[in-house]
Every structure is written in structure tokens, then in C-alpha cells.
Design goal:
alpha+beta, 6-stranded mixed sheet, 3-stranded antiparallel sheet, 14 helices, about 15% strand, binds manganese (II) ion
Length: about 500
């Protein structure tokens, strides 16, 4: 099953959706379509997140309809019928029988029955929720079905009078993650964190950005995350200053940093982690200064992730630390007293041009409104977001020479808990000495033979335990292994 949600969990989600819809409404939700890559080759199929969230049904060419309080059943699924001949070529289909048996549909029909059944399901309902304006063909279909209902007017049938974007209810629902969703996201982040660790141990001058990318893909797939949540960004040197760099084709040079923004997708849930590391295993002085500044900003932002704080609190916290640091390091002209004014004038945007995070869930830039009634919304337990400040000094930037061509971002996945937050991606090292220790420790990596230096084993083992102990002390309350709740005041 490509999506983690159990039939029971999907049933609970539909129940909540039905409640939000109200008795007078209908929800129409199409599955994703297969997309052609070239000629008769498709991209790997990825189910639509809303559709997967409510149904768990993994196939294309399907439409789910929720009809609150309908006597014959509230959940109607239209899908491809069984077809022994096609299934020999393309694999198993659940068919209408499977839709009822395995996915809890009260009623299932072949997709071709849509035009006949839909007007009946819309009859005497006031409001139609569907992904309004996201697909021209669907918009047209909904209009057709509405016309068909209207043609029954003389038989006493009333047609819906309102169309509403389905995201109004589904995206609010998806914003708060259940405990089973949190569990999947914790695992997705742990898989990606391990992949980042493997990449750190393998990185050295002369390797390419592509080497690190393929290593990451392999490490994720091997742990069960076959697909990525987004194309990995691996930028060596000044390539790190290109925010959505996905070319990943350059050779990694001694003395440069490399920025790796990559996260696997597990059972339909994204992880999204960025680490920046020195290609040769040691940060230079200017790199160290900028890196520590970004890390301090990231920790300040994570401290601001707790229920009741507004969405922008982490961003504002990061901007304060970054702007102060930019003045101290000579990236911005001014005195410490000028910091509030520099923030107001958004001068930090010369080196920090993006925001500090986004919702994370089934989609990497997950759904859910960021504002409510014109104000940044308050964080609530169950929300998951990224915290990812950075500094990017382009090669031609107006900045001290030794900082030019350095790009740094540090990104973790953070879940809001009852009294603070939990860092899902904490197993990916981010302290300077943690990263340097791990990169110095290449010989002891699993998968890389240790046979050449058998005597070194136990000694190194002690050293690593000491380093781990020291680093867990240093990283204090924010860095915890995933799987444990983090308490913050
Ligand atoms: Mn991100």
C-alpha cells in the first residue's frame, strides 16, 4: 500500500470532513491523473494528496464523492473496473468490488457511470465542494452535472446554488496531523536524516554534486522511501546561492561548502532537510562564522515554535539574530543600535531573501492557510513546519571578500506539541563539531570495510561515544533523537 493511512484512519477523516461539509453539501474529489513523460512513458504515478487523505485509494482514474447523511451511504467511489486483460500488462486493480471491500466505500461504480450517477447525488443539495478552478476539464464536468440536475426541476428536484473550493475544509483538516501521521513523518525524517549522515561521511573534494545526490537517493530508497518529496538540491560553493539549484552537475572543490537540501517521501508524507557541510571536512574561519550565525538563528527560530505563538514568530526570531550577526560580521554597515532600523528596512534581504519555513505534510509545501482574518495564524499542537534560515553571499555581492560565494541553509522539520515542539529531523547533525567529527570518521562507516585497521575499532568507538555525549550536551534542549518528545518552555 503506497499510502500509510489505514482504512480506519481514512474513515475517521471522512467523518470529520462530513461534519465540516454540513448536511446540505456534496464533496467531489478526483484522483490524480497519470502524466506522460514522453510518448508512451508515464512519470511514476503519485496520488493526489487530498484524494489520498480521504480515501487511501492508490489508483488513477477515480473520483470520490461524499454525500453527508445519504441513506444509501455517504462515501461513493468511482474507479476503473477490473480488467483481466489490462491487469496482465499494468498490474492489479481493485475494481468496484475492491473499493467497497478494502477502502470502505458504501457504494462503488465504474468511472464511466459518473455522468449518470453524479446528477442524482447532487439532487436537492445546496452546496458543491470540489477543487474549484484546479482542472479545466473538471470545472466543465461540474457545470454539465449541474445542468443535468436543473433539467429535473419540473420533477421537483432542486439544484445546488453554491460552488465552494474543497480546500476550505480539507486543507484545514490536513494542517493538523494525527498521531499516526506524526509517526509516519517522524520515520520519513529519520530516514532522510540517516541519508544526510551517510552523505556527510562520503563527501570529499573531487566528488561531484551528482555523487551526493545519488547517494542520498539510494540511502532513502534502501530504507523504504523510494520517492523524494522534491528534487534534491546539491549546491557546491557559490551554487548554494542559487535557491532552487537542481542541476547538481559540478565537481566539489576543496575549501568550498556544499549545501544539500533533500528529503525522502515515505507513504505519501514528505521530509525536508537541509544541511551545509565543508567539502573537505573542516570549516574555514569565514565559513565557520557564517555557519554559526545561521545555526544560532535557526535555534532561536525553533525556540519560537510553540502553541499560541503566531506563524511569523520563528521567522522574526531568525531575522533578529541574522541581522545582528550581519552587522557584527560586517555584511551590513551599521552599529548594534541600528539593528531594529535595519530589520524594519529589511536590509537583511540582501543575504536572506526567503522566509524561514512552510507547512510540511503530504506535500512538501503543505496545505493550510498561513493567515486567519488578515493576521498570521497561531501555532497549534499537531502542525508540522520547517525551520530553515540561511545566508547567501553571491560571488558578486557587496560584502567582505572572504564571505563571497558562500551559501548556507540549515533546515529541520518541527512538529508543534502541547507545550513546545519536537524536532523530527534531529538525527541529522548540525553542530559544527558534530559535522566535523562525523566527516573525520569516514573509515568506520557501515558498508565501508574496516578490515584494514582492525585495531582502531574499539578506540574509535569510545571516541565516538564521547563525541556523541558531548554533542548531546551541547545541543541542549533542541536536539533530540527523533522518536522522543521534546519539551520546551
Ligand atoms: Mn523547505
Amino acid at each position: 500500500m503506497p499510502f500509510a493511512a489505514s482504512t480506519k484512519e481514512c474513515k475517521r477523516r471522512r467523518r470529520d470532513a462530513v461534519r465540516a461539509l454540513g448536511a446540505d453539501s456534496v464533496l467531489i474529489l478526483p484522483a490524480a491523473a497519470e502524466v506522460t513523460r514522453n510518448r508512451d512513458v508515464h512519470y511514476p504515478f503519485r496520488q493526489d494528496s487530498d484524494f489520498a487523505y480521504l480515501t487511501g485509494f492508490p489508483e488513477p482514474d477515480a473520483v470520490a464523492v461524499l454525500v453527508p447523511k445519504r441513506k444509501e451511504g455517504e462515501f461513493v467511489l468511482f474507479c476503473r473496473p477490473r480488467d483481466p486483460e489490462r491487469e496482465i500488462w499494468d498490474g492489479h486493480r481493485y475494481g468496484v468490488e475492491g473499493a467497497v471491500e478494502h477502502f470502505g466505500a458504501d457504494e462503488a461504480h465504474p468511472l464511466e457511470a459518473l455522468d449518470e450517477e453524479l446528477p442524482r447525488l447532487l439532487a436537492n443539495r445546496g452546496r458543491v465542494f470540489y477543487p474549484l478552478g484546479s482542472d479545466d476539464a473538471l470545472d466543465l464536468k461540474v457545470m454539465e452535472w449541474l445542468r443535468a440536475v436543473r433539467s429535473m426541476a419540473r420533477a421537483g428536484v432542486a439544484a445546488p446554488t453554491e460552488l465552494v473550493a474543497s480546500e476550505r475544509i480539507l486543507h484545514e483538516q490536513r494542517l493538523i496531523k494525527s498521531s499516526s501521521e506524526a509517526k509516519t513523518m517522524r520515520r520519513a525524517a529519520a530516514i532522510s536524516a540517516e541519508a544526510h549522515r551517510r552523505l556527510m561521511r562520503a563527501c570529499r573534494p573531487g566528488k561531484t554534486e551528482r555523487d551526493l545526490e545519488t547517494l542520498f537517493l539510494h540511502a532513502c530508497a534502501e530504507q523504504g522511501a523510494r520517492f523524494q518529496a522534491y528534487p534534491p538540491i546539491v549546491g557546491g560553493g557559490a551554487n548554494a546561492c542559487i535557491l532552487h539549484y537542481i542541476d547538481n552537475g559540478a565537481v566539489l572543490r576543496d575549501g568550498d561548502l556544499v549545501l544539500v537540501d533533500a528529503g525522502g517521501e515515505l507513504d505519501g508524507y514528505a521530509s525536508d532537510i537541509t544541511r551545509t557541510l565543508p567539502v573537505n571536512g573542516r570549516f574555514s574561519e569565514p565559513q565557520r562564522a557564517l555557519y554559526q550565525l545561521v545555526l544560532d538563528a535557526q535555534k532561536a527560530a525553533i525556540r519560537a515554535v510553540r502553541p499560541g505563538n503566531r506563524w511569523n514568530a520563528p521567522h522574526d526570531a531568525a531575522v533578529r539574530v541574522l541581522t545582528r550577526g550581519m552587522v557584527e560580521l560586517g555584511l551590513l554597515a551599521g552599529e548594534p543600535n541600528d539593528v531594529p532600523k535595519l530589520i524594519k528596512e529589511e536590509r537583511y534581504k540582501a543575504f536572506y531573501m526567503h522566509r524561514t519555513g512552510h507547512w510540511l505534510g503530504m506535500d512538501v509545501h503543505d496545505v493550510g492557510a498561513y493567515k486567519e482574518d488578515g493576521k498570521w495564524r497561531r501555532l497549534e499542537p499537531g502542525m508540522v513546519l520547517t525551520v530553515e534560515p540561511g545566508i547567501y553571499v553571491a560571488p558578486d555581492a557587496d560584502a567582505p571578500e572572504h564571505y563571497r560565494g558562500i551559501g548556507i541553509r540549515i533546515e529541520d522539520d518541527v512538529r508543534v506539541t502541547a507545550d513546545g515542539c519536537e524536532i523530527l529531523s534531529a538525527a541529522a547533525p548540525k553542530e559544527i563539531d558534530e559535522i566535523e567529527a562525523l566527516m573525520a570518521d569516514k573509515a568506520r562507516e557501515p558498508g565501508i570495510s574496516n578490515a584494514a585497521a582492525p585495531a582502531a575499532g574499539p578506540v574509535d568507538g569510545k571516541k565516538e561515544r564521547r563525541a556523541a555525549k558531548a554533542s548531546s550536551k551541547r545541543s541542549g534542549k533542541h536536539a533530540k533523537r527523533s522518536g522522543k518528545k521534546e519539551k520546551q518552555s
